[in-house]
Amino acid sequence: MKIGxxxxxxxxxxxxxxxxxxxxxxxxxxxxxxGYRFYLNAHLDRLxxxxxxxxxxxxxxxxxxLIRLAEKPExxxxxxxxxxxxxxxxxxxxxxxLASLEQTLVRLQKACADGGSVRxxxxxxxxxxxxxxxxxxxxxxxVPGTHGAGQN
Length: 152
Description:
Distance between the termini: 33 Å
Shape: elongated
């Protein structure tokens, strides 16, 4: 199948498929006589695997490692289990960060419960004054798909 059909089947944008090829998560496809990429069912299966991993918030390096491990079907699965355990630690840390974020947002919202003018807005004032404390409270700002420097 061509890249457009693959994108439609997997609901993954063409640009993302090309990116996965570029970074080595997806093997390069064969090309037909006209030079168009020609994808096989193996590419479809790999993209579905990657998409499922991404839905679990796994980083590219984690996905790459899982692919590497999956290519050795006779190997012991302890490495797969260890990778998942590390990812679970990350998810639990993220849940704690989100709970803290929720508390902060609730506190900010309560600062403006009475309404009033924008000049008197407790939310905007709270956002301005909390900027200094955020840098020290949450040094590892989470970006989807990454787990901080040197972490998986």
